[in-house]
Amino acid sequence: MTRIKCCGMTRVEDASYAAELGADAIGVVMTARSKRQVSLRRAREIVEAMPPFVATVALCMDDDAGFVQEVIDIVRPSLLQFHGQESDEWCAQFGHPYLKAIAMGEGASALYQLRDHPHATGLLLDGHGLGEAGGSGKTFDWSLMPKDSHQPLILAGGLTPANVAAAIQRARPWAVDVSSGIESAPGIKDPAKVRDFIGAVRGTGRVGHDAAHR
Ligand SMILES: O=C(O)c1ccccc1N[C@@H]1O[C@H](COP(=O)(O)O)[C@@H](O)[C@H]1O
């Protein structure tokens, strides 16, 4: 079964809806470098609203260590996600489980980057180019997804309800991660797209309640 993370939550109701439909994890973006940034307080509210067994992920990108520690202490996410140029040693200093984003777009190859992050709980392969900022909403060539990693690999970058089934077929990831592909505007999730995305991953077409449920 392919796990699902729905990222970039800015509202409790959106995160709760994704969890209700069967998302395995939700994400909140903490870095000021994103238009989806939420405050520490809002992130905590979203995390606290999640039911048992739904993991919570707080995304940082080249932020300073003091801020990351505040995120751990105040938001208390299950996992951090480092989406910038952070080294393995730097990410591991907090003693908190984390995902490390790996660039798979222009000029990038997974080969060396995967070996560079042995302490990551999982590696999230995204469509941005080497040295570029993540969260570009771009897909990458799914055939480049490594087949022999000993760490769980999470496929991200430009996934939508329309392309996620083909992406899974091609890349065979442990999990998929989506943000912009289930939005009606940056940070605002579209209930029909959330439902269709989860339905496409689960292979059922549509799952859960009707959109009128909201
Ligand atoms: O979502 C953002 O604004 C963001 C900003 C900076 C770094 C990463 C960001 N998002 C993450 O990027 C991947 C792929 O997102 P998308 O589905 O292509 O929009 C995902 O992990 C987002 O959370």
UniProtKB/TrEMBL annotation:
Pathway(s) this gene product operates in, as recorded in its UniProt entry? Amino-acid biosynthesis; L-tryptophan biosynthesis; L-tryptophan from chorismate: step 3/5
Q: Which reaction does it catalyse?
A: N-(5-phospho-beta-D-ribosyl)anthranilate = 1-(2-carboxyphenylamino)-1-deoxy-D-ribulose 5-phosphate
User: Which Enzyme Commission number(s) are listed?
Assistant: 5.3.1.24
Q: Which residues form the N-(5'phosphoribosyl) anthranilate isomerase (PRAI) domain?
A: 5-198
Q: Which GO terms describe its molecular function?
A: phosphoribosylanthranilate isomerase activity
Q: Does the keyword Amino-acid biosynthesis apply?
A: yes
What would be one Pfam family of this protein?
PRAI
- Return the broad EC class: isomerase
Superkingdom in the source lineage: Bacteria
Q: CDD domains per the record?
A: PRAI
Does the record's keyword annotation contain Isomerase? yes
Keyword annotations for this protein, in alphabetical order, are:
Amino-acid biosynthesis, Aromatic amino acid biosynthesis, Isomerase, Tryptophan biosynthesis
Q: Which PANTHER family match?
A: N-(5'-PHOSPHORIBOSYL)ANTHRANILATE ISOMERASE
What family, per the record? Belongs to the TrpF family.
HAMAP family found in the cross-reference section:
PRAI
Name of protein: N-(5'-phosphoribosyl)anthranilate isomerase
